[in-house]
Amino acid sequence: MIELDGLTKHFGRKVAVDHLSFRVRPGMVTGFLGPNGAGKSTTMRMMLDLDNPTSGSVRIDGRHYHELQEPLKHIGALLDAKAMHGGRSAYNNLLCLARSNRIPASRVSQVLDTVGLSAVAKKKSKGFSLGMGQRLGIAAALLGDPEILMFDEPVNGLDPEGIHWIRNLMKSLAADGRTIFVSSHLMSEMALTADHLIVIGQGRLLADTSMADFIHENSRSYVRVRSPEQERLRDALHGAGVVVVEAGNGSLEIDGGTTERIGELAAGQGIVLHELSAQRASLEDAFMQMTAGSVEYHAHSDRDGAAPPSVGPHWGEAWDGRTGSGSPDDTKGV
Ligand SMILES: Nc1ncnc2c1ncn2[C@@H]1O[C@H](COP(=O)(O)OP(=O)(O)OP(=O)(O)O)[C@@H](O)[C@H]1O
């Protein structure tokens, strides 16, 4: 279990992480989401004692990171795959880590095998592709066979087979009862992998909820129906007290209805249907909806001279009246 209590990080006047409190529980994959610059990497770095919190604390199985003896046996992490020593072979990189944590050398070959790098174990890691580097970083995370694993953008640079592999790896580690905490901007992938979500925006907690509840609460689900007898269908639905919206593309949309009810109403009137489908919002839709007010870095098109999309009140402002914390000299991710 990872426990954050009031975790806060200031970089000068910039508030990167703002009083974050949450638990990352064992036995499931917890996804960590937030727009660019939301504070995800800074939070993960503080979890590993790589950055000092301005205030608040992180506990790993009840202890501060610096209190852990041989920390790789408690928590393994992939933060920056390029952090390996490029002049060393994959094997030697891992061997150095293993020695510093009193992990037997035999474990190095095991994890290289797990991540599919046995054939290049003796090659210098500076020649590795992005995907191979990610695999080596994942091998390092697994080295101490820890109960807690943290991955920052683990699918970055992986091909579809690699993405499939890391997804199954994370799920099976969680099924073993381990604590898995993973950040990713790939929403479709996160939707397939995570059971629970922590969402932050501008350093603050926006959601701590199950995947299903997050999608349900932050997006619209509706039934779409098309018929060659649209007028009759609309009248039949109105007559039954069903609220219908004209979608403008020849279809009708019904919020809160079920396909069973709509289908039975149409059948009762002998109305032919060409489409009857439940439309469920994706994680991406729900994420965009929730974080719209806390996106710091917007792209906008110059082609049509349009103004950049208007940014609503920052989520934090709507919430507690404080002003946003964006710094004018930030240049990241424009
Ligand atoms: N060393 C630093 N010095 C100053 N500001 C920093 C530093 N590290 C991060 N920041 C700022 O803190 C904020 C949070 O950054 P962080 O990298 O944690 O966000 P993130 O959610 O991981 O973003 P991304 O999804 O783009 O990787 C950003 O505004 C960033 O510019």
From TrEMBL:
SMART domains, alphabetized: AAA
Alphabetical list of SUPFAM superfamilies matching this protein: P-loop containing nucleoside triphosphate hydrolases
Domain ABC transporter span(s) in chain numbering: 2-227
Region annotation Disordered: where it falls in the sequence: 298-334
Parts of the chain that traverse the membrane: none
InterPro entries: AAA+_ATPase, ABC_transporter-like_ATP-bd, P-loop_NTPase
GO molecular function, one term: ATP binding
Keyword ATP-binding: yes
This protein's UniProt keywords: ATP-binding, Nucleotide-binding, Transport
Protein family according to the UniProt entry: Belongs to the ABC transporter superfamily.
Entry protein name: ATP-binding cassette domain-containing protein
